[in-house]
Amino acid sequence: MSFAAKLAFKERVRSWAQKLDVHVVWLGVRPMRSKWASCSTNGHLNFSVDLLSLDPTFWDYVIVHELLHFSIPNHGRLWKALMRAHLGDWEEIEKKLKQNA
Prior knowledge:
Elements: H1 3-19, E1 26-30, E2 37-39, E3 44-48, H2 56-68, H3 77-87, H4 90-100
Parallel strand pairs: 1-3
Antiparallel strand pairs: 2-3
Helix pairs in contact: 1-2, 2-3
């Protein structure tokens, strides 16, 4: 993992957090076995180090996905509508990400 990629990724997370008006207390990029990311209700975000080797389109999908969970804890209609509003055809990105997993 390059330091520059990690820095660029974290900057992208902060940028999206500002756009979505989400307060991130702690931001980590670390090895994760079975997920691309996780978040907690107290403002902690963890992202898989494996994301850094992927195209930034996937970064945005995972970042927005997690940040929306700060206000919407499920994957219901509102969450899906907000994903579409911010990322367009997010289902296609999700499908490609799963193929990369």
